[in-house]
Every structure is written in C-alpha cells, then in structure tokens.
Amino acid sequence: MAKANARPIRRIAINTGGGDAPGLNAVIRGAVLTARRYGWECVGIRDSYDGLLAPMRGGGLVPLTPERVEGITWLGGTILGTTNAGDPFRYPVRRADGKVVLRDRSDELMRAFQREGIDALVAIGGDGSLSIAHGLAKKGLWVVGVPKTIDNDLAHTVITFGFDTAVSFATECIERLHSTAASHRRVIVVEVMGRYAGWIALNAGVAADAHAILIPEIPFDIDKVAAALRAREAAGQNYSIVVVAEGARPKGGARAIVEQRLGGGERLGGIGERVAKALAPRTGKETRHVVLGHLLRGGSPTTFDRLISLRFGAAAVRALAEGRRGVMVALDPPSVRYVPLSRVARRIRRVPPNSDTVRTARGLGICFGD
Ligand code: F6P
Q1: How many A from CA of 134 to the centre of ligand 1?
Q2: Which residues are designated catalytic?
Q3: Least crowded by CB within 10 Å, which of 7, 24, 114, 178?
Q4: Reported pTM
Q5: Start-end ranges of CATH 3.40.50.450 in the chain?
Q6: pLDDT per residue as tens digits for the range 186-210
C-alpha cells in the first residue's frame, strides 16, 4: 500500500462512475465535509471523467461546498452524474466517417487534472471504475477508490454500499408478489439485477420466502426447477415464486445478453421471461414474469447504506490525509481498512455455492435448479 509523505493537498476532486447506486451522494457528503476539516477545496467531476474530457456547457467541474452537500445523504442517484461509457483508457470517439473507435485519452486526462490544480481524486465506482482508478494511479495520480455497486460483487470488502437498499426493496417486491401469485394460483418469476453474482437474488429470495432462486454461480436445470414447483403443487401449495438473477444461466447454456457494448461490456436482460416461458408447459401453470431492473438502483438509501457511505467518504479523505494512495476503502467490520487497488481491479466476488446462506436456503427447501 503506497504511502506518500509528499506534497500538501489543497484541492481534491470526487467523481462517480458506472451505474448509479443508492448512497453515492452520502459518500460525496462524507468526503466533502471531512476534506473541509483539513482545509481542502473539493470539486466534483461531472459524469465520471467526462467533465474533464468532454465538458458540457456550464462546465465540467462542480464546486462541492458544505452548502452544496447539505441534505443529500438520503438522495438516490448522484448529484455529479455518471456514465458507463467514459473509460479514459478506452474512450469512444466518433471519427469523421461516423465510425466510433476507442482511444486512450488517459494522458490527456492526467494533464487536465494538473491544469485544474487537482492534487488527488476520490473515485467512487464498481469494478470498471476501480480498474480505471488503478490505471490512473499507475500513471501517478493520487487516488483513493470507494467501492460501489448494488450487486455487491467487489472483492476485498465485506459489502458495497447500495446493496442493502437494493436487497431491501427486492425483498419487499417479492413479498408483495406472494399474495397475487397465490390468489391466481400462478408461478411468478422475478428477475433482479446481478450480472456476475447472485447476492441480490439470494438474499432477497431467502428473506422473502421464494421457492426457487437461480443465480449465476449455480447453473440451473429448468426441468429440476419445474419438478420442485410440481412437488409444491402436489403438496397442496398452488402457487410459486421464482427469483432469478439477470446473470443466471441454464446448465451448459449462455447468459441472456441483449446488447454487446462498445469496449467489451455486455447488457443483460430477459432471463426472467425465458424462465417463465419454459416453466409454463413444464408445470401446466399460468406463469408471469416481473423485471425489477433499475427500480433496484433508485430511491433513498437505507440507514445501513447511508451510514457505510458516509463512513467510506470520510475514510477515503482520511486515507489521503495519511498519505495513502492507490488504495480502496473496504469494510472490515467493525472497521474500515484500505486495500491496494491492484488487488481489487477486475476481481469479482461471487456467492460461494456452499455459503451459509445457500445452505440455509436449501434447508428451507428452496430449489436452486441443480
Ligand atoms: O450496477 C450493476 C448493474 O446493476 C448490473 O447488475 C446490471 O447488469 C447493470 O448495472 C446495468 O447497468 P446499465 O443499465 O446502467 O447499463
């Protein structure tokens, strides 16, 4: 973990990258108010790095004063804006012939940081954003990362902020589906986010008494899922709830990709509908599917998420004050600690198939389709 007893900090920047998550604004508040105690000025970069690479009218930097961060702890989204198409190392640029190509604009970005007198960056984001932060740290930028994603799939932190809010809301939605499914004797399939990891599906599914949970870590056999639902029917339970993570896939099959993104990413979606359609003839029951999708990213953060977000923001600034750089703030209860970005970049934390929660679910009779 690099420590620099180097130059004094006068001005820091904060940015939010990738998909939004409840708690981003609380991190910003935690960082800004803590930075003020060190006498540092704070600016926010609009839309990840676009505020420096492609500033819109009105400017790319937002002054982050204590007044500006008043009353934002409970606001969803990000007051700075975000994008998942602004990687400075693979930046989409439209050529004269209309074709979009990827360019490395990281040197230009480093110059922009210098030009703006920015001494350090607090980069709030998921695996993609933290990998970018690691790349910039290697180029000499003084950067501390803060782990964000509702999917909770980042390595080396017990939890990411945004996850608790997403799970709480998903739990409430699944719970509500029980009564309508039971009234109509239907099978309802609920698709939740979770591209590489099934943390949301697993936790919300268990907490809301789902009957089957399908996650990326445990490829499923649709016939086994159908058999479990038929067994419920035979036992007199005439409805069922199936929770499926968007990244879940059948044994030997592929994930449901709806779009291949420029730069390598994939957009997922549609597995809930496929599962519902496959279950109808196999169970002989009327099926419906619901996609919770971006509803899980919206809304006000839970108390838990507000608290860890404020703690993460404050800890990121303390790290800078202590001379740390190239690190990510991590939750290691009861404390926070710092993990080198090199260990975090491109590492996904998946649900261990033999984890206590999976075993609990199996004990409760929940089917994973394996
Ligand atoms: O934040 C992660 C995530 O929620 C994934 O579960 C999902 O695949 C992705 O974001 C969707 O992001 P977007 O619709 O912004 O491209």
Answers
A1: 21
A2: 151
A3: 7
A4: 0.95
A5: 11-161+301-343
A6: 999 999 999 999 999 999 999 999 9
